[in-house]
Specification:
By secondary structure, the chain is α/β, with parallel strands linked by helices. Helix content is about 40%, strand content about 20%. An eight-stranded mixed beta sheet has the order 3-4-2-1-5-6-7-8, sandwiched between helices. A six-stranded parallel beta sheet has the order 11-10-9-12-13-14, with helices on both faces. It comes from Caldivirga maquilingensis (strain ATCC 700844 / DSM 13496 / JCM 10307 / IC-167).
């Protein structure tokens, strides 16, 4: 059986993020179980139309996220349509509803179609993200067009999954989707055995995410300045669209002796750091339910975040709803609260 994931990004050296990591992890597991797996994704600069990541075949098409040209988008979607037809999968799995999802449902009617809700957007979400990232400034007309297209994609799907429980309400409000049709399937993480985790002797605070504006990574660097006697480490790099802005921001903090900036790290290295880490800081202005949170909990790492999806942050860490990360870090380090909450999270 041939399975094709439809996703905005694959996991490449140029583009990292939760969606790409999720597809890679699930795709490799499906291959191990005997499925033929494809990934249909936007093409990153410098990459060919087709390439392989392990045993998963990646087929790409042009998509210009930054353009506001309707004709450019139509041309890109025509390329996506050709890829969908050429791959000819038995099952298409969309990581969040996209225009490409609806195209697949229309042209491959005899295939099965799955949509896995990862991060549906309301108008307030666009407004919030646009406050730190101009690429998210869209017109009301475009929002309502997206709402119409994505809603149809969800309704026509044979199976709808959600990685977070609070999305059931959101899908109903956005698209009129009956919550009874939505099945809860949390995102996976690699299993972490108890004996594998050995925490650092001294406090170690980490950041694990892209260095994109919505992540507000500079607040992590500011926290590093306020606690000069504590070690901080970052894992992640910016999307290609934000590389110049990242260089400008990081130039203000590179001389901090207690800060280690690693950029993108391989999976093995990431796990080693999480094994030793005490607290994960995620200062995003907005998130869905980030895989980084699940990975942290799997490694007995407490959470310090400005977002609280499904109540995870306040259950297993400190919810910095007022961006009071310094207060939260002091609270977590006091009386070994980070250790108790990390254990409970695990």
């Amino acid at each position: 059986m041939r399975v094709a994931f439809i996703v905005s990004k694959s996991f490449t050296e140029r583009r990292h993020g939760g969606f790409g990591w999720l597809v890679r992890l699930v795709g490799e597991e499906l291959v191990r179980r005997g499925f033929e797996v494809y990934v249909l994704a936007w093409r990153d600069t410098g990459y060919p139309r087709e390439y392989s990541v392990g045993s998963v075949r990646v087929v790409t098409y042009d998509y210009h996220f930054e353009t506001r040209s309707v004709f450019r988008h139509l041309r890109d979607y025509w390329g996506a349509l050709e890829v969908i037809r050429d791959v000819d999968a038995d099952v298409y799995i969309s990581i969040e509803a996209m225009v490409e999802t609806l195209l697949a449902e229309l042209v491959k009617r005899h295939s099965a179609h799955v949509v896995w809700a990862q991060d549906p957007f309301e108008w307030s979400d666009y407004e919030l993200l646009a406050s730190v990232d101009p690429y998210y400034r869209i017109s009301r007309a475009r929002f309502y067009m997206n709402r119409l297209v994505f809603g149809a994609a969800y309704r026509w799907a044979d199976l709808v999954l959600t990685q977070a429980r609070f999305y059931m309400r959101k899908l109903r409000e956005l698209y009129g989707l009956d919550p009874g049709r939505v099945h809860y399937l949390p995102n996976p993480v690699h299993p972490i055995h108890e004996y594998e985790v050995k925490k650092s002797e001294e406090p170690l605070i980490c950041y694990l995410a892209r260095m994109d504006p919505q992540k507000r990574y500079w607040l992590f660097f500011e926290l590093t300045k306020r606690f000069p006697d504590i070690r901080f480490v970052t894992m992640g790099k910016p999307n290609v669209l934000y590389e110049d802005r990242y260089k400008e921001v990081i130039s203000k903090y590179v001389d901090l002796s207690n800060l280690e900036v690693l950029g993108f790290v391989p999976e093995k290295r990431k796990r080693e750091i999480l094994d030793r880490c005490w607290v994960l800081v995620l200062p995003s202005i907005r998130e869905g339910l980030p895989i980084a949170m699940l990975e942290a909990l799997a490694h007995r790492v407490a959470l310090l975040s400005s977002v609280n999806p499904d109540g995870l942050t306040e259950r297993f860490g400190y919810w910095a709803r007022n961006d009071d990360f310094d207060v939260g870090l002091k609270w977590l380090l006091s009386n070994d609260r980070w250790r108790v909450l990390g254990e409970e999270g695990y």
